[in-house]
């Protein structure tokens, strides 16, 4: 939207509400118009489609309290005193308070008290590229795009951290011209039209407008003798291998950012970033809850009753876990500091769940011994179902 259009458009009129309408009134008016003008209800009706776009644009400004305030203050500033911006009005060079070189972007782009108080400098400066005469240093090289890739790790690799090579093909700085775009031995020259800013201004009546320079396409420089390998872009597709350090404790689905490892910027501009999504395979022994490792330890009934010490695996070796006498099936035993390493230092815990392993068959001697034990257990008065289900 141009500067003139911004000020001349009457968004209140588009929605059919007064300038002091409440937010609820604006919302109701927009919903009613949008429903009747929606392209799905008016197929092939170009006028209805244009009206739908207009009311949507008006609602986008008026439904946002901050944008509405800036819009109202802008119109109020230019509507009074020096002649309006109506279809038959406008500022005439030499007859009002502004001359032919008047530019809204310059007015609000400067650090004036009014722009500072109202925030209009940010609003109009962003809308119109600050407008007016280009300033040195306003052109910024086009940064390269971000790139995304994936890698799959084993459970223990993800828990302990690992360095993995990633082979990928993407736009990278040209190795011949080192990203400058110019043939080796030559250099780009400053664009004479925009003086290296990448922006030119033009006047339309009483206003100045800023736009990217056509000669250098907004880059601020011109290459007379382009690099033959990248054709002056400074970029070429090539396959490369990147070594990625995956930190300990990475989770399944987590993204790792590698700054500056993405797509190369145009003519030596900064590269984008590389985002690596990590997938973690399940492990046959370990599970994970946050920074804690979990595992299920099979034990015999006699080990729970009499107690024992069992060797269990960890990420870096084995450790003995004491099972106290009389431990119930399903109890969780905690081994501190043998879980997943934490970024802040230290590690989580290892949570060991004991689970009775029931033999599927017994030899005669074991069967007789178990029967004898059962009789002795009953004789001692032990009843496993005492108090169960109302018994």
TrEMBL record:
Signal peptide: none
Lineage: Bacteria, Bacillati, Actinomycetota, Actinomycetes, Mycobacteriales
Comment, domains: The J domain is necessary and sufficient to stimulate DnaK ATPase activity. Zinc center 1 plays an important role in the autonomous, DnaK-independent chaperone activity of DnaJ. Zinc center 2 is essential for interaction with DnaK and for DnaJ activity.
Protein name per Swiss-Prot or TrEMBL: Chaperone protein DnaJ
Binding site for Zn(2+) 2: 191, 194, 213, 216
Binding positions (Zn(2+) 1): 174, 177, 227, 230
CXXCXGXG motif repeats: 174-181, 191-198, 213-220, 227-234
Family, per entry: Belongs to the DnaJ family.
Residue ranges of every copy of the CR-type domain listed in the record: 161-239
The protein's required cofactors: Zn(2+)
InterPro entries named among the record's database cross-references: DnaJ (IPR012724), DnaJ_C (IPR002939), DnaJ_domain (IPR001623), DnaJ_domain_CS (IPR018253), HSP40/DnaJ_pept-bd (IPR008971), HSP_DnaJ_Cys-rich_dom (IPR001305), HSP_DnaJ_Cys-rich_dom_sf (IPR036410), J_dom_sf (IPR036869)
GO molecular function: ATP binding; heat shock protein binding; unfolded protein binding; zinc ion binding
NCBIfam families per the UniProt record, alphabetical: DnaJ_bact (TIGR02349), PRK10767.1 (NF008035), PRK14279.1 (NF010872)
Any GO BP: response to heat
Residue ranges occupied by any J domain in the UniProt entry: 10-75
């Amino acid at each position: 939207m141009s500067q003139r259009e911004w000020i001349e458009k009457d968004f209140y009129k588009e929605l059919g509400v007064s300038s002091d309408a409440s937010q609820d009134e604006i919302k109701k008016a927009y919903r009613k118009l949008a429903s009747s003008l929606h392209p799905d209800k008016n197929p092939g009706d170009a006028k209805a489609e244009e009206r739908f776009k207009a009311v949507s644009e008006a609602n986008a400004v008026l439904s946002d309290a901050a944008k509405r305030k800036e819009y109202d203050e802008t119109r109020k500033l230019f509507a009074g005193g020096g002649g309006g911006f109506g279809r038959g009005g406008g500022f005439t060079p030499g007859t009002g308070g502004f001359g032919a070189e008047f530019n809204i972007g310059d007015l609000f782009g400067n650090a004036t008290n009014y722009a500072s108080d109202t925030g209009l400098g940010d609003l109009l400066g962003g809308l119109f590229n600050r407008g007016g005469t280009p300033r040195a240093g306003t052109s910024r090289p086009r940064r390269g795009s971000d790139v995304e890739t994936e890698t799959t790790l084993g459970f223990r690799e993800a828990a302990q951290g690992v360095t993995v090579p990633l082979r990928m093909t993407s736009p990278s700085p040209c190795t011949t011209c080192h990203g400058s775009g110019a043939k080796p031995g030559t250099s780009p020259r400053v664009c004479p039209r925009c003086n290296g800013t990448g922006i030119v201004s033009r006047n339309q009546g009483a206003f100045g407008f800023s736009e990217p320079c056509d000669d250098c396409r907004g880059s601020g420089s011109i290459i007379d003798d382009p690099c033959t390998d990248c054709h002056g872009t400074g970029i070429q597709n090539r396959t490369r291998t990147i070594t990625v350090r995956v930190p300990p404790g990475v989770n399944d689905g987590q993204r790792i950012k590698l700054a500056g490892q993405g797509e190369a910027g145009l003519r030596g501009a900064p590269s984008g970033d590389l985002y690596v999504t990590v997938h973690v395979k399940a492990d046959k022994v370990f599970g994970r809850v946050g920074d804690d490792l979990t595992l299920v330890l099979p034990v015999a009934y006699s080990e729970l009753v009499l107690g024992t010490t069992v060797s269990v695996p960890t990420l870096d070796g084995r450790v003995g876990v004491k099972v106290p006498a009389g431990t119930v099936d399903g109890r969780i035993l905690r081994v501190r500091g043998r879980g997943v390493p934490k970024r802040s230092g230290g590690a989580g815990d290892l949570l060991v769940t004991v689970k009775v392993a029931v033999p599927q068959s017994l030899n005669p001697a074991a069967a007789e011994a178990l029967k004898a034990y059962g009789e002795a257990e009953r004789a001692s008065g032990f009843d496993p179902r005492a108090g169960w289900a109302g018994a």
